[in-house]
Every structure is written in C-alpha cells, then in structure tokens.
C-alpha cells in the first residue's frame, strides 16, 4: 500500500521545495508590474485627465486630448510630462524625462552652491601694527577673499590709544587698498565702542582656483 505524500503548494518547476512567500519565488518576467516609488511628476500613462495643455519647442502649443498627446510623445520617442498639475487643464511637455531630472538636479546643486552662507573672517590690528605684521595679515585676508568670505578688519584701541583714531582709520584704508584686487570696501571705517571697523567683501569675478 502506497504511503500518501504530503501535498506541496505553488511549487515552481525545478524548485527544490515548497513555495514560501518571499522565498524561492520563480524567476522571470511577471505580467503585472510591482508598485513603483511615487515619481516627482506624473508622466505618460500616469496622466489620467482627459485633456492637457501642451507647451514646448517641439510641438504646436495648445490644448490636446491626453491620448493624442501620448501618441505625439511616442512618435518622438520621448515622454509626456506633467509640469503644472494645478492648471486647468494641466500643462505638459514632451521631453526626455531622465534628462529633465538630471538637468533639474544639476541646476539645484549649482544654486545651492551659490547660496552657500558667506563666512565673515576677522583680522585684528592695533594702532601700532608694524609693516611685517600688516603684510602677514594682508596675505591671510587675501586668501579669505579668494575663498568667497568677507573680511571684517578692525583696530582695537586700549586705554589711551583711543586718541589715535586717525591712525586706525588710515591703517584700515591702507589695508583695503592693499586688497583692492580681491575685495571691495563696503563702508568707510567707523568707530564702534573701542574698535574701528571696516568690512571688505569679495569681488564676484574672483573664482577659487
């Protein structure tokens, strides 16, 4: 008498054991696609409104039935991309969507780099700063400006040295003149408490090498 065999379920051909969810799933193409991550824009058959407004360089602008616009995109081997979903009807373009995303990310990266917060570097002098110290600090300030940072130069007055304000102002103007190739003096030196300040901004044309 034959011993009854335990039944197996959903065993793929050639598999070594019963089918387990998430386990030895048969390989190959499936008729239905798995859910994809939500795209940044609706494209192609994900655009389900009956009509759209088509714009762009490679089409005649106007309102089209969505199916007609899809055929136009297919003929050009491009994508129909919804760029303004809140408009009535939604605005679409026929473009290469992957290239569109690449260019968009590149532009955002460039804008982020340009909007990087400017740092303010401080350079301190005294009314009696000698030429050697002046040159040393000017070279440091030159590097700060080349990197796109602002330089706040100030002369610190201690005790009775406050009477030498004219000397401090001349020193800061000389400092700004020394850096004129790399930065622009934003304001004339002014006294704040026991400090005389001058702000020097980097020139926009200077690029970091």
Number of folding domains?
Answer: 2
Look at the structure and give the mean pLDDT: 80
Helices and strands: which structural class?
alpha+beta
Helix count? Answer: 4
Q: What is the CATH topology of the largest domain?
A: Translation Initiation Factor IF3
Q: Can you count the beta strands? A: 9
H/E element sequence: EEHEEHEHEHEEE
Please estimate the helix content.
25-40%
Estimated radius of gyration: 34 Å
Unreliable runs:
8-37, 205-209
**Strand percentage:** 15-25%
Task: Give the oligomeric state.
Answer: single chain
Task: Describe the structure in your own words.
- The protein has 209 residues and is α+β, with helices and mostly antiparallel strands.
- The protein folds into 2 domains: 44-112, Translation initiation factor 3 (IF-3), N-terminal domain (Ubiquitin-like (UB roll), Roll), CATH 3.10.20.80; 120-202, Translation Initiation Factor IF3 (2-Layer Sandwich).
- The protein contains 4 helices and 9 strands, in the order E-E-H-E-E-H-E-H-E-H-E-E-E.
- The chain has helices at 66-75, 97-114, 131-146, 165-178, and strands at 51-55, 62-65, 79-84, 91-95, 120-125, 150-156, 183-185, 190-192, 195-202.
- The longest helix has 18 residues, at 97-114.
- Residues 8-37 and 205-209 have low confidence and may be disordered.
- It is found in: Cytoplasm.
- Residues 1-32 are annotated as: Disordered.
- Belongs to the IF-3 family.
- This is Translation initiation factor IF-3.
- Keywords: Cytoplasm, Initiation factor, Protein biosynthesis.
Quick structural summary:
GO terms for molecular function: translation initiation factor activity. This protein has 209 residues and is α+β, with helices and mostly antiparallel strands.
């Amino acid at each position: 008498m034959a011993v009854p065999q335990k039944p197996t379920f959903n065993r793929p051909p050639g598999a070594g054991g019963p089918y387990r969810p998430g386990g030895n799933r048969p390989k190959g193409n499936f008729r239905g696609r798995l859910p994809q991550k939500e795209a940044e824009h609706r494209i192609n058959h994900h655009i389900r409104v009956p009509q759209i407004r088509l714009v762009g360089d490679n089409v005649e602008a106007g309102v089209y039935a969505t199916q007609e616009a899809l055929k136009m995109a297919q003929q050009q081997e491009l994508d129909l991309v919804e760029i303004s979903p809140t408009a009535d009807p939604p605005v679409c373009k026929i473009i290469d969507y992957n290239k569109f995303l690449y260019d968009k990310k590149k532009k955002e990266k460039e804008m982020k780099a340009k909007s990087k917060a400017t740092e303010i570097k401080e350079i301190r002098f005294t009314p009696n700063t000698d030429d050697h110290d002046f040159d040393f600090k000017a070279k440091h300030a030159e590097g700060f400006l080349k990197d796109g940072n602002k330089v706040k130069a100030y002369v610190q007055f201690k005790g009775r040295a406050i009477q030498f304000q004219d000397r401090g102002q001349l020193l800061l103007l000389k400092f700004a003149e020394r850096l004129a190739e790399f930065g622009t003096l934003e304001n004339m030196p002014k006294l704040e408490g026991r400090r005389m300040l001058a702000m020097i901004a980097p020139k926009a044309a200077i690029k970091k090498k």
